[in-house]
Amino acid sequence: MKCYVVGGAVRDALLGRAVHDRDWVVVGSSPQAMLDAGFVAVGKDFPVFLHPQTHEEYALARTERKTAPGYHGFAVHAAPDVTLEQDLQRRDLTINAMAQDADGQVIDPYGGQADLQQRVLRHIGPAFAEDPVRILRLARFAARLTDFSVAPETLHLMQQMVASGEVDALVPERVWQELSRGLMEARPSRMLQVLRDCGALARLWPELDALWGVPQPPLHHPEVDCGVHTLMVVDMAARLDAPLPVRFAALCHDLGKGSTPPAEWPRHIAHEARSERLTRQAAQRLKVPTDCGELAVMVAREHTNIHRATELSAAALLRLIERCDAFRRRERFEQALLACEADARGRLGFDDAAYPSRPRLLKALAVLDAVDTAAVAADALARGVRGPGVGQALQRAREAALSAANV
């Protein structure tokens, strides 16, 4: 029995990056031998075990054979005679197909170290085309390894996979799993660009893909193209260290512009309502978590109003804050403001610009929080006001507070 560290841990160590998790491959062993050695079996589809002390994952060396379309259609063979090289050959990219032995020596049968030096994401062989998840994984690596490019032959293979319908076999849960991980990388725009370059974005998220080639007024959007703007916005959200719901909202805020009739370009009147509808549609289809979907819908509907917060009267500010349910959902409201800041700064030449709407709305919310609503209601009741009149009295008190504070 021989054990090797494999995959991402080897890759990241060679890149000088922090290694957080280690995966192991075991050559020359069997499930029973692993159990006899004290390992705990956890794998469902193939033999994977947890080390009795470190609890790191140890998988028996295995090969895979394609048996059906999609990413579940594989027959796995794990046996003591499977070699390390055979196990590594089934992996996706050369940079993920390296191993390290107990002496620290790197085993690199497929040129992973050379591709690390050349900063290239390259598939190992034709087996790459058997698993459509690998398209998503490669795109995610492009978002993480921001100075790497996709090998031309790998991009061509991915395009063939899309054309053959392999991507259509992906289930929404797996698509969202990879997309969400990629959104949290340093340059999420690179993931989306790779997906678009190979044609996968049009199949997985057509509402988003439709933004490319759609112009916007150059005075407000010097980058002009709606798709380019969206990539800039999601990268700005990453620069602001925004959480996942904000980054998803950044992608969705302008979806409605992709359905603006060309005769109305470059203006996009009432695109907010279309964006809201298309965001709901995409979030439902991709089975996006509730917190991400709800924030994205709200930002799609309200981002233009939030941008104009510095121009709004006290009454209009109050209505906006109420529509956003900010009194009850403060964290979500703050995330919406962050997504809108990413939108405003995700424009050519605006990346370091101030965004005064955010502080004004936060200040307005603080002023409104200080209003003694119980006292206002008690005073209204004491004056004989009942029913909707109590709510109206509270509205007037809040508007007066905003006006007095000169927010």
TrEMBL record:
Keywords: ATP-binding, Hydrolase, Magnesium, Metal-binding, Multifunctional enzyme, Nickel, Nucleotide-binding, Nucleotidyltransferase, RNA repair, RNA-binding, Transferase, tRNA processing. InterPro entries: CCA_bact (IPR012006), HD/PDEase_dom (IPR003607), HD_domain (IPR006674), NT_sf (IPR043519), PolA_pol_head_dom (IPR002646), PolyA_RNA-bd (IPR032828), tRNA_CCA-adding_enzyme (IPR050124). This is Multifunctional CCA protein. Mg(2+) binds at residues 21, 23. CTP binds at residues 8, 11, 91, 137, 140. The keyword Cell cycle does not apply. Its cofactor is Ni(2+); Mg(2+). The keyword Iron-sulfur does not apply. A single active site specifically recognizes both ATP and CTP and is responsible for their addition. It comes from Ideonella paludis. Belongs to the tRNA nucleotidyltransferase/poly(A) polymerase family. Bacterial CCA-adding enzyme type 1 subfamily. The lineage of its organism: Bacteria, Pseudomonadati, Pseudomonadota, Betaproteobacteria, Burkholderiales.
